[in-house]
Amino acid sequence: MAKLWLLSLAFGIGIAPFLFAVPLQKAKGTTDSRKWLAEHMDEMITEMDLAKAYGAPYDLVEQTLNKRRKMLRKTANGTSRNIGPKNAKDAAYDHKMIRHKIFPMAAASYGDTENVKNCIRNTFRNATLYRNSVVQCNGKAYELCSAFTAVSHEDKAIILSFRGTDTGYQLIEETIQIALFKRSQSPDEEWGKVGSYFLKIFNQLVDEGKIIDDLAKLVNTYNDYEIWVTGHSLGGAMAAIASATIVDAKLISAQRLKLVTFGQPRTGNGEWATAMDKKVGPFNYRVVNNRDLVPHMPPLWFEGYRHHMTEVFYNNAKNKTEEFVICADEAESDECAGKYWFYNVRDHLNYFGKSVSEWGEKGCAN
């Protein structure tokens, strides 16, 4: 009986925390959702809770889950992916630049146009907002998705930032959409497949928000500038798809593209992840904060979803945000976020000591 329970737990643990970590009713708005999360985020299930509730030794629970994780990695597409430390060698991770320039742009996307302008003003010495594009996600008035384009002349960079999941209900919507619908095709057959929910919203922002048209105009005007693409949570998934689109459309060379996401969910299958590793360029980083649950979703066993490289893991148990590990040998490494099987919402909502969305809505004021 104990073995049967442990096998069931190992199979189901990937989806359960995600479903119960958010309110199970339609949120009235962003403020209500955040209030609920603030009140309940400390009630997330932990290893000790499981051991106590079911009478299983703590070490046995962790050991069993780790065995299942390794089995899933080995059976994914026939083998576990290991393409070597290309990214770490070719483009050194710059903590200060990402913390103080790219991360504020990911946070800024949660604000309205005035908030975005304030974030840009508080981050750069010579930068301007080009456009803040807002659409109704899948045509639903209670869900807003957005992205903005900006230019930092000091850095010679064109910036594209995507808004992340902003309400508890939207988080549930993402889970349901991913669970019910098959993956969609990404830019072309060579890119594998990505989640249909991510691709639908991205295409909305392309068609209605004109984000790729805007990028093309900016690249034409500032033809010696780089492109920085970023986003938090759902925004991270769309940032990855955008980067693939930019490279595939040859808007700019992969060497002049910087992709940095925060708390990005698994966005596509193994073919997608491999294509991202090979084509998007050396400056391609997924930043993960400690026990953030979203990077572990969808689970490895579901529809073949996989992460692309390169993970930068901040284990903030000691609140030292400058301490990080770069896992350049594997996308799902035990040296980074893969060491955990139990996650929480708090680490997803907070990066570098900031509540990502609230900080962005306050104009990124320190």
From TrEMBL:
<dbReference type="InterPro" id="IPR029058">
    <property type="entry name" value="AB_hydrolase_fold"/>
</dbReference>
<keyword id="KW-0732">Signal</keyword>
<feature type="signal peptide">
    <location>
        <begin position="1"/>
        <end position="21"/>
    </location>
</feature>
<dbReference type="InterPro" id="IPR002921">
    <property type="entry name" value="Fungal_lipase-type"/>
</dbReference>
<feature type="domain" description="Fungal lipase-type">
    <location>
        <begin position="160"/>
        <end position="300"/>
    </location>
</feature>
<dbReference type="Pfam" id="PF01764">
    <property type="entry name" value="Lipase_3"/>
</dbReference>
<protein>
    <recommendedName>
        <fullName>Fungal lipase-type domain-containing protein</fullName>
    </recommendedName>
</protein>
